[in-house]
Amino acid sequence: MRNPEDLGDMSELRAEVDVTDRALSALLGHRARLISRAAALKEGNGWPARIEDRVDEVIGNARANAETDGYDPALAEVIWRELVEWSIRREQTALGRE
Fold first, then answer.
1. pLDDT tens by residue, 70-79
2. Are 35 and 87 in contact (CB under 8 A)?
3. Cβ–Cβ under 8 Å, residues 16 and 2
4. Which of 42, 78, 95, 98 could cross-link to 47 by cystine, CB 3.0-4.6 Å?
5. Is 49:42 a contact under the CB 8 Å cutoff?
6. 39: exposed, middle or buried (C-beta count within 10 Å: 0-12, 13-18, 19+)?
7. What Cα–Cα distance (Å) separates residue 46 from each residue in 41, 42, 61?
8. 5-55, pLDDT tens digit by residue?
């Protein structure tokens, strides 16, 4: 990742945004595959898709990570809440518990 201060013009900045978005997409794909695996493991354990303590932990981690990484924790919470809810719906579908 390039330091934003080192980007001299909008074309460099846009290129860096595109590179960053590609990296984020790859990470989201990996996370989606982890959720598929979580559903399989939960099925074997008889666990529900939604485990509130884990939801709270993930959101808390997202807020703390945002603070550490220098962006608004409220934004992180909005993004991660949507991501968590999508993940739970995916697990529920995989578990046949829509």
1. 999 999 999 9
2. yes
3. yes
4. 42
5. yes
6. buried
7. 9, 6, 26
8. 999 999 999 999 999 999 999 999 999 999 999 999 999 999 999 999 999
